[in-house]
Design brief:
CATH topology: Rossmann fold
Distance between the termini: 33 Å
CATH superfamily: Vaccinia Virus protein VP39
Strand content: 15-25%
Oligomer: single chain
Structural class: alpha/beta
Order of helices and strands: HHHHEHEHEHEHEHEEEEHEEEE
Number of domains: 1
Radius of gyration: 18 Å
CATH class: Alpha Beta
Number of helices: 10
Helix content: 25-40%
Shape: globular
Strand order of the largest sheet: 3-2-1-4-5-13-10
Largest sheet: 7 strands, mixed
Length: 275
């Protein structure tokens, strides 16, 4: 497991240019419309409330579209990601839009050392982040360390049940093929492609990933001094996570099971306060 960071970093580094060029990240939309925000953040605007003036940090920010979106909503944002190319792209993107956002290249577990303890009113983490981390307890300790007393964690993430199921057995069949709970050893994947539209063929396709049960996530946060204030499960995600079995909603662009979407929690929004 010692090489998981470098292995995963190579995969993410390689995909940065393809993601920035993909129409799914909508960088041109941001440039055309000063009020435009990402679909991920827009989905949760009613839950976020007013973030004006809050000192916020977006952990595992990738190329910064959600970070920029929170800044456009009035938060004073920082971003952190372990990928150098992703941080370079995020800085360039924010500069193009005329936004003052400080971006830092670092592993998420080093965030308190890099950014400062008890420095933030808001810690934001978005879809597809936690699965790259082997220990949810260590992540919760990091979040707690970053937040001021009374500060808030805002997390929108793929549901651990979604990560546990597979649609590979047939067009109408969902099977529980992968761990739901955190395991010591990672799930090892060797898959080309990526989650956005692109014609690019990638060379670095092996990744190490982990699932974390919903109870494990909540328990970790509670054990590190956070108080759960909201937990909402959703039947949708921002991309077709189960190809061939999901339909896109025209209003929000989210994807849910075509057949009986109530069968599967696909994502969740969690909020917690630092005591």
């Amino acid at each position: 497991m010692s090489d998981y960071r470098e292995l995963n970093r190579r995969s993410w580094d390689e995909r940065v240019p393809a993601h920035a060029a993909s129409p799914d990240y909508k960088l041109e939309w941001f440039e055309r419309d000063p009020a435009f925000i990402s679909d991920v953040v827009r989905f949760d605007v009613p839950r976020l409330g007013d973030v004006s003036g809050l000192r916020g940090v977006h952990l595992q920010c990738h190329i910064g579209t959600d970070t920029v979106s929170l800044a456009r909503l009035g938060a004073r944002m920082s971003g952190l990601d372990f990928s150098g190319p992703a941080i370079a792209q995020a800085r360039s993107f924010a500069d193009t839009l005329g936004l003052e956002i400080d971006f830092h290249q670092a592993d998420v577990y080093d965030a308190v050392e890099v950014l400062g303890a008890a420095a933030y009113d808001l810690v934001f983490t978005g879809i597809g982040a936690l699965g790259w981390l082997p220990s949810i307890d260590r992540w919760a300790r990091t979040v707690s360390g970053l937040l001021k007393p009374g500060g808030r964690l805002f997390l929108r993430e793929g549901h651990p049940m979604l990560w546990a199921v597979s649609g590979d057995r047939g067009p109408d069949l969902l099977t529980v093929d992968h761990p739901y709970f955190e395991t010591e050893e990672p799930m090892v994947w060797d898959e080309g492609g990526t989650y956005v539209q692109t014609e690019v063929e990638f060379q670095h396709n092996v990744t190490h990933e982990w699932n974390h049960g919903l109870g494990e996530i909540v328990t970790a946060l509670l054990s590190h001094g956070l108080e759960l204030t909201a937990l909402e499960e959703h039947d949708s995600v921002p991309w077709p996570a189960l190809p061939g079995q999901m339909t896109q909603d025209e209003d929000f662009g989210e994807w849910r099971l075509t057949d009986r979407p109530e069968r599967l929690a696909c994502s969740y929004t969690l909020q917690a306060l630092k005591r």
